[in-house]
Recover the amino acids of this structure.
């Protein structure tokens, strides 16, 4: 896969931000336009072995140049922060050209 086709940073008017709402079994996604920064629900993915491949397809299709990962807290105060941080590192290692 050619990284230039995945990361079209030379044309910010068509790039998007992908927001990830991490869950142990499902992951919610929202997509925001870089200009308006208004996010809309995009999809819910299974948190399985195919997750990163699906994210790669979305990044290419939607011209994503930034990913934001939300940190969840449950009503009982439990957090998935460690799992989300691991996923964040995995995404950063998988997509090294993604903006921080």
């Amino acid at each position: 896969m050619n990284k230039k086709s995945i990361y079209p940073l030379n044309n910010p008017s068509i790039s998007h931000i992908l927001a990830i709402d991490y869950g142990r079994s499902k992951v919610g996604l929202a997509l925001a336009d870089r200009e308006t920064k208004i996010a809309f629900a995009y999809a819910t993915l299974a948190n399985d072995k195919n997750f990163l491949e699906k994210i790669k397809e979305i990044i290419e299709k939607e011209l994503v140049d930034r990913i934001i990962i939300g940190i969840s807290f449950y009503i009982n105060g439990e957090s998935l922060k460690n799992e989300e941080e691991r996923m964040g590192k995995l995404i950063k290692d998988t997509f090294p050209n993604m903006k921080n």
